[in-house]
Amino acid sequence: MTNSSYSEELRIAIDAVVEASKICRHIQSTEGFSELSKNDKSPVTVADFGSQAVVCKAIHEAFPGDPIIAEEDSAALRLPDQISLLERVAKEVKTLFPTATSDDVLAWIDQGVSRDAAPRTWTLDPIDGTKGFLRKEQYAVALALLVDGQVEVAALACPNLDTSESDEIGFVFSAVRGEGAFVAPLSDPNDRQPISTSGCTVASQARFCESVESGHSDHSWSSDIAHELGISRDSVRLDSQAKYAVVGRGEAEIYLRLPTKPGYVEKIWDHAAGCLVIEEAGGKVTDIHGYPLDFSKGALLADNQGVIATNGVLHEEVVAAVKKCNG
Length: 327
Ligand SMILES: Nc1ncnc2c1ncn2[C@@H]1O[C@H](COP(=O)(O)O)[C@@H](OP(=O)(O)O)[C@H]1O
Ligand SMILES: [Mg+2]
Description:
Layout: H1 7-29, E1 35-37, E2 43-45, H2 46-62, E3 68-70, H3 83-94, H4 102-109, E4 120-128, H5 130-134, E5 140-147, E6 150-162, E7 169-176, E8 181-185, E9 193-195, E10 208-210, H6 219-228, E11 236-237, H7 242-248, E12 254-257, H8 272-280, E13 284-286, E14 307-310, H9 315-325
Parallel strand pairs: 3-4, 10-11, 10-12
Antiparallel strand pairs: 1-2, 4-5, 5-6, 6-7, 7-8, 8-9, 12-14, 13-14
Helix pairs in contact: 1-2, 2-3, 2-4, 6-9, 7-8
Enzyme class: hydrolase
Family: Belongs to the inositol monophosphatase superfamily.
Protein name: 3'(2'),5'-bisphosphate nucleotidase
């Protein structure tokens, strides 16, 4: 592992998302895991809570002074009619920490309820792409360290992601600012190999990816943009920050996230880890207007709209095409 000033943060972060992935995989392999609907109508499962407990425990124990801005909180698990859900979460967490109690689990989850920008802040999406997780498709455990509003460390586990190079399924991507981006199989997280974005310079040959959910990104707008760029092949649709991973390792050149309804503001935990992985792999990430993502505003990307992530070379051309097609 690297000798950078963030080597400890990187080691702890990778280990935390790898451990959380074990819980997610175990839950996904069992039939009939519970699903709740949150206030914003998005789903949440035993795995979201279990993953958040495991990662927040690790980060809080290693860096007790650092706040964590994570997606979930324990409120739903504290309701009297959700006692069996809490027991289920605790049972999963006990597979890693046998002495953990339900109260421990609630407290670990609530280590992630910070919402304010601080000089050093972690941000966590315990299961990014919960809809993909429910469909048994792509999802990610995404963890990043922000220092003075800039992403400095990223660990992004994609437990269902495959590769054309081997039969391996499940990878952890990681990056420290200024030190490159890496991938390792979840089965051997220390085997970190450098990744880089594709060298494709011809927009019409670019492969682009987007959300499966048309409610998360405007599919008809993206098809107009692809047409404008001369791209004839279909987009690859996959859930979660696995899209950032795919562009980061050079298997696609463009990831478009195009706002579908006025008023939706992107959350930092949906982008921080993936953004650094792409930037350190040689790519570029901005919003749809070409502005850098501003992670200094607390939990929200309050000053940004949507996302354009590319291999770098094609970025300005894609931003211009998005502008021209204009929703
Ligand atoms: N209207 C909307 N526009 C954009 N993103 C949205 C959205 N509603 C929900 N999301 C976010 O989209 C994420 C999934 O992204 P993707 O479509 O790339 O898989 C969700 O993360 P969670 O699954 O962690 O809740 C959620 O935060
Ligand atoms: Mg998410």
